Amino acid sequence: MELAVLNKEGKETGRKVTLSTELYAVEPNHHAIYLDVKQYLANQRQGTHKSKERGEISRTTKKFFRQKGTGNARVGSLRSPLQRGGGTAFGPRPRNYGFKLNKKVKAVARKSALTLKASDKKIQVIENLEMAAPKTKDFINIITALGLDAKKSIIVLGDSNKNVYLSSRNFKGSDVVIASELNTYSIMNAQNVVLTEDSLGKLENLLSK
User: Fold this and answer.
1) Distance between CA atoms of 132 and 70, rounded to whole angstroms?
2) 0.70 exceeded by pTM
3) What's the pLDDT score for residue 209?
4) In this prediction, what percent of the chain has a pLDDT beyond 70?
5) Taking a C-beta distance cutoff of 8 angstroms, is the pair 43, 99 a contact?
6) What's the CA gap between 103 and 84, in Å, rounded?
7) Is 178 within 8 Å of 160 (Cβ atoms)?
8) Is CATH 3.40.1370.10 what the domain over 2-46+100-207 is classified as, yes or no?
9) Domain boundaries in the chain?
10) pLDDT tens sequence across 34-75
11) Residue in 16, 19, 13 with CA at minimum distance from that of residue 156
12) Comparing C-alpha atoms, which of 51, 32, 45 is closest to residue 105?
């Protein structure tokens, strides 16, 4: 698949790039995408939820009422889950929701996600982004020129660029990541994927291993 390289004004530069068939034209593995997205979302969970059990409740140990003669059932402790203000039975405990996923499965998931975007013509290639200073207005102008101002998009850079990142931070409609940090969730969550020229080679090196 050949794509025209666009400049920051959204116009064609006259150059074209050929997307690798190993990354953008594979047989999509939907189950691998599901597993990778599931692991990403699981890792976002803090897992700090906690409720007090009967052994952690601070209440008097005095017997509630006498054992016999009242007609009521025997009450052993006010900390019991049956009592108002007592502990919680089988309540949540802190835990780690993360799980292991093989590197090859994650690579297949990212290739599948990129293939789906390419087949839907939702991938654009632009020349390398350079910004003299962090300025959100300039970043929004680039997004608008690419026709993505009303769409959720992700821009993939080859290397870290502080000015581009800071310029995009206040614009909620688009995310900026470097090629080594691109994940399946980000690809699938975005309506359009914008790749810089230098990110193409980085992605090929990362995903073709």
Assistant:
1) 83
2) yes
3) 65
4) 100
5) no
6) 50
7) yes
8) yes
9) 2-46+100-207, 51-91
10) 999 999 999 999 999 999 999 999 998 888 889 999 999 988
11) 19
12) 32
